[in-house]
Amino acid sequence: MLKALLSLFFAFALAVNPQELIEKAGEHFDNGRFRETADMLAGALPDLREAGNEEDLAEALSMLAVSYSRLGAYNLAMDAQRECYEIDLKGGDAGNISSSLNNMAGFCLAMEQYDEAERLIRKAITYEEKNGDTRALAVRYGMACDVLLKQGKVDEAIDFGTKALEIDTKDGREMQAAIRKSQLAGALMDAGELRQASALLDEAAEVFSKTNNLHSLSVCRQQQGAIAAKQGRFMDAANLLREGLTLSRQTGNLLLQRNISQDLAVMLKDMDPRSAVTYMQDVVALSDSLYQQETARKMAELSLQNEMDRKEDALKDQERTIRSQRLKMWFLLGVIALLAVLAVLMFRNISIRKKNADLLQKTADIKDKLLILQASEQNGENVDALLKELSEIGSNVPDKTLTTREREIALLCCEGLLSKEIADRLNISQRTVETHKNNIFRKLEINSTAELVELMKRTPPPNDRITN
To answer: I need a labelling partner for 362 at 20 to 30 A (CA). Which of 132, 224, 387, 406 fits?
Structure first.
């Protein structure tokens, strides 16, 4: 038992303050150390769950989900975000619920689960429209535009993209508005609205160039090149695509490089076959790199999943051990408390009995002295002093005087009658009999009927000590 208590003590001593842990994980997250963030938060989840602060737990789960997604472990990200979502539902905050739904929709989009992504983002929009946070609502509309475009629901995608653009433009968020223009342009291109899409992309490209947002600018150039090709402006298209390819190489986005190289190869196959072959070779090489990258990502995800499963099993075992130790500790404390109470009661009872015995003995001694004085006809002063002392002691001597009813019940007990039989004999309730018996036991300092019978046989209470 001592070993269990010591283990529990050290478990408490090593516990980490939830806020400090989340702040430390947040530093790793902000510095792009997503693996460290995931390891730290995943290991702390059992303690956070046991602590019972669901706000801290939800914050940790949300950060953990995004960290997993940055590592490509979308299944783990979904599990963490779902738990966060359940907490948000209980909390009832529409903004938190909407945020969790939006994250889950993004994970589904990355895993090409478009139907589930659409269901989640529509639900998020419902919550956010009630919440009234315009910035968050624009993000939800933008996500809906991307999801619906993947499903070929062009008209709805345009509708949500337009709403997102209107909100960000009205609120003066220039960069976000430029991104919305690029999103909306993609939907308009699918709808054949090339002129309107081109105008939006020109405006967006200007903002991306000004803010040096190379990734968004490379996407924008690819879109502009695709529009120029559809309009028959092949030289402009080639220049725009080449610029987009250069930008994508600077950002290291292999997927975008492959897509732009493929667009160039297709467009130049008749105009410049040699260049087209070169770009196609790049497509093959980039596809191979992407395949290797995807394979490595899946292997890393599988490894991470296995590692997290092992850690979770170990943490569950530790959690069960700690719970068992706590139960043992509380049981031990309960036993100790009970023994302490019993010891106090026994000590008190012994002290009272000793005190009463001393008082009774002193009373007997004084009575003996009075008898001697009376027999020898000593002066009254000594008698008065002894009577006074006897009176003072008498106030502390335990009361052994029985009432008429108590004596009557005591005598019936000595006859061997049970409480119910005594109640029937005296025409009173059994509870009243028990009350009288308890008073008798208290006055005579005994604990049972057997002791009462024995006491009555030895020293029956005299009639002059019975009160009415």
So the answer is: 406
All structural domains of the chain: 402-467 (1.10.10.10)
CA distance 127 to 224: 35
Full DSSP string of 116-162: HHHHHHHHHHHHHHHHT-HHHHHHHHHHHHHHHHHTT-HHHHHHHHH
- Can you tell me whether residue 8 is helix, strand or coil? helix
pLDDT at 8: 42
Q: How many residues does the chain have?
A: 468
Question: What HEC string does 393-444 produce?
Answer: HHCCCCCCCEEHHHHHHHHHHHCCCCHHHHHHHHCCCHHHHHHHHHHHHHHH
Residue 76: count other Cβ atoms within 10 Å of its Cβ. 23
CB-based burial of residue 381 (10 Å sphere; 0-12 exposed, 13-18 middle, 19+ buried)? Answer: exposed
Q: With beta carbons less than 8 A apart as the criterion, state whether 429 and 409 touch.
A: no
DSSP letters of 324-389? HHHHHHHHHHHHHHHHHHHHHHHHHHHHHHHHHHHHHHHHHHHHHHHHHHHHHT--HHHHHHHHHH
Q: What is the pLDDT of residues 339-398, one digit of tens each?
A: 998 888 888 878 777 776 776 677 666 666 666 665 555 555 665 665 566 555 544 444
